């Protein structure tokens, strides 16, 4: 399973890349807004830092505008994945972009049928927002399961990025289901290795080691 960092924060990306298990980055307009930096300054830096896929999101609403915006974003580097919301005009744009060899991430996905259309449009990735579904009483991980089954049934190559991750169990459950990627915040990524029993176990070994004659 690939793990992407869900942020536009340079310092977080810098530190997370030192961990050795971050395979890419996903940004979105809300992440960019938090940095208070101009996208034209921020995007090239992120794209250069990361040796893996970097999702940059379009913010226009018609297919023609989305394609133009996507082409500009794709110019930032070969590892750019253009993130496009799953709406009619977005899917039309994704079809055109996939014909032109531009990689896409169909985002804000809440239903298996949206994911089916994303695959038919030739999306490279689809991003089901599991945590946001859970928060309105639907089962986000079940959506991942349905998408995995549909893609398996028809042999679609679109990869599933589990997004809007709220806790480590979202990643564990999605990994068991065979999701290709999970994207999560800096803090959730850190929680993947943290365990109180591990800390205790390490301390016990260090205490024992101090008793060993040297
Ligand atoms: C993923 O690509 C999205 O940017 C992100 O996971 C959105 O989730 P949020 O609900 O945390 O904003």
Predict the CATH topology.
TIM Barrel
Mean pLDDT: 98
- Give the name of the CATH architecture: Alpha-Beta Barrel
Integer tally of domains: 1
What would your notes on this structure say?
By secondary structure, the protein is α/β, with parallel strands linked by helices. It has a single domain (2-210), classed as Alpha-Beta Barrel (TIM Barrel), CATH 3.20.20. It contains eleven helices and eight strands. It has helices at 10-19, 29-35, 39-49, 63-74, 88-99, 112-120, 130-134, 140-154, 168-177, 186-191, 196-210; strands at 2-6, 24-26, 54-57, 80-85, 104-109, 125-128, 159-162, 181-184. The protein has an eight-stranded parallel barrel with strand order 1-2-3-4-5-6-7-8, surrounded by six helices. Helix 4 (63-74) crosses helix 5. Bound molecules: erythose-4-phosphate. Erythose-4-phosphate binds at residues 6, 26, 28, 30, 107, 127, 129, 131-132, 163-164, 183.
Give a nutshell description of this structure.
With 214 residues, this protein is an alpha/beta fold. The chain is built from eleven helices and eight strands.
Secondary-structure map with pairings?
Blueprint: E1 2-6, H1 10-19, E2 24-26, H2 29-35, H3 39-49, E3 54-57, H4 63-74, E4 80-85, H5 88-99, E5 104-109, H6 112-120, E6 125-128, H7 130-134, H8 140-154, E7 159-162, H9 168-177, E8 181-184, H10 186-191, H11 196-210
Parallel strand pairs: 1-2, 1-8, 2-3, 3-4, 4-5, 5-6, 6-7, 7-8
Helix pairs in contact: 4-5, 6-8, 8-9
The structure holds erythose-4-phosphate.
Residues 6, 26, 28, 30, 107, 127, 129, 131-132, 163-164, 183 line the site of erythose-4-phosphate.
């Amino acid at each position: 399973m690939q793990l992407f960092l869900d942020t536009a924060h340079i310092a977080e990306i810098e530190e997370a890349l030192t961990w050795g298990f971050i395979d890419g980055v996903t940004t979105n307009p809300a992440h960019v807004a938090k940095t208070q930096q101009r996208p034209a300054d921020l995007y090239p830096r992120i794209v250069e830092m990361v040796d893996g896929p970097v999702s940059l999101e379009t913010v226009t609403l018609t297919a023609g505008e989305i394609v133009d915006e996507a082409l500009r974003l794709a110019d930032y580097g070969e590892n750019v994945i253009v993130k496009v919301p799953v709406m009619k005009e977005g899917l039309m744009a994704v079809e055109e972009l996939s014909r032109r060899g531009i990689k896409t991430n169909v985002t804000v996905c809440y239903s298996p049928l949206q994911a089916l259309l994303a695959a038919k449009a030739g999306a490279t990735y689809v991003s089901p927002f599991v945590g946001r579904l859970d928060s309105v009483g639907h089962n986000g991980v079940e959506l991942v399961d349905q998408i995995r089954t549909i893609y398996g049934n028809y042999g679609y190559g679109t990869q599933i990025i589990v997004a809007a991750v709220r806790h480590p169990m979202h990643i564990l459950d999605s990994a068991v289901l065979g999701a290709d990627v999970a994207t999560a915040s800096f803090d959730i990524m850190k929680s993947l290795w943290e365990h109180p029993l591990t800390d205790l176990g390490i301390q016990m070994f260090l205490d024992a080691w101090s008793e060993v004659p040297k």
